[in-house]
Sequence to fold (585 residues):
Amino acid sequence: MKNFLSSLLATIIGILVMTIVVVLIFVGIIAASTSKKVPEVKENSILLAKFIGPIADRADDNPFSKFLSGNPFSEDMMGLNQILKDLKKAKGDENIKGIFLNLRNIPAGITILGEIRDALLDFKESGKFIYAYADVYTQKSYYLATVADSIFMTPEGVFLFAGLSAEATFYKNALDKLGIEMQVIKHGSYKSASESFTRESLSDENREQIKGYVGSIWEKMVSDISKSRNISVDKLNNYADDLIFNETEKLVETGMIDGLIYYDEMLTLMKEKMGVDEEDDLEAIKLNKYKDVPNKEKKEFSRDKIAVVYAMGMVIDGNMGEGYIGSERIAKALRKARRDKSVKAIVFRVNSGGGSVIASDVIYREAMLAAKEKPFVASMGNVAASGGYYIVAPADTIMASPSTITGSIGVIFNMPNMKKLMNEKLGVTTDVVKTNRHADMYTIFDPLDAQERVFIQKSVDDTYKNFVGLVSENRGIPYEDVDAMAGGRVWSGKDALELGLIDMFGGLEKSIEVAAEMAGLDNYRVQSLPILEDPLTMIMKELSGTKAKIIKKELGDQYLHYKKVQEIREMRGLQAIIPYDIELY
Fold:
């Protein structure tokens, strides 16, 4: 009885403490929202862009996300949509005289960086300057820096320029030691989503497709750098092959950068550029603060809207929040945009390597219905492959970057057989009572038999045929031609344009412009969907997800492997998913 009362008292105290914490946080939200000071842009100012925090297609503006993340001192996540909007605003802001790119490693995909790069090029059309500076230039940060009028680096800095590589990790031997067999049934020789668990190295088909799209991405990067720095593509590739930049002086000699200077010298140079006395400070505002500065060039109010529906992450069944493409949530957002009479066109922004076939089909249905009623443009981010391509197929126009990863039209079924692990490694046995022969077909404690494999293979084949068929119907490409380019093969945006899988190159802003043109709109508002949850709801979800965030902080770069295992645990049924995560350095 005493133990019961102690447990009851502890529970009551825990509930009271949690209630007080939630109330305090809620009060803090209200105080923060009511006392928020609008930043001032003084005359003759510089826009400071660091891009230290991760960049998503759109950011989570919950002010307490960082506090509850397990790392309250981390940099805020930035949204591509907001960055593009702010760069356009800065172009017309008479107080902003130029942009200072203070760079290092940028945690963003190459396609998103390409869209920011294009926006910076547009900014330069105003006649304002852009300077770039870094202690360390990675290939991604240097790619962005090449839009600048002048590029500088600290004399003892590090410059990485060696070409792109894609490294795959294989877990087969580890699974063998654990006594786990990954049972894989697929359609498409290039559908290699389970190679990490069934092989020790890349298959010939997988190596071929990786070489193809990584080569296309590198070609795009060196082509843009060549144009900006006036250095031939051949020379750039020779520099990468010969690793000549271990001597920083060669960076200036070859024209890769314009000078080796310290940060104080960089500040002096900008002061001279802006006519500021040496003893005075430069006026500057950070890009992540500039979003709160009102736009002086306000458009005339319009009831007409273009809805941008953001779908980012793995495609899964149900109603997951931001960072996942939950079928219920995204389908509801598309349905809301379709039924809203003030929405005249829809842009479907997708950044996903796919996932559940059922979830993809639920979203596809709503995308198809929306495309029948309103101009419908698909905008691909870093990746829109497999299930990520499935859901954009109904679009009137599909847009991507040359560096976008897409395709992977194929289907795969994965199910681990853990019989050996349980029986021989752990000494755990199972027994089963069933009414019919295959009632336990999907158990992980017994392997599939021949008849069950035939049954699942037919489901995989039928789903593949449906996938190819809907691409054929929506893209106006003969079934046989789609089948020839499918088979689970991954393509770059450059190849996808030639194959007819996309219609044109362009990023998020261009996609909105195309949708407006299709709808005949000159004046319109942009509405982002799904609508982000209110701060209190987000706080409760953040509290429930704190464990994963703490694990991410502790594991660091190794979190990728943990996340992969967790995603596999969430997979149910057939999957239309890209073979691996793409990370370029």
In short: The chain has three domains: 1-36, 45-162+243-290, 305-430+437-577. Residues 1-36 form one domain. The first helix runs from residue 2 to 34.
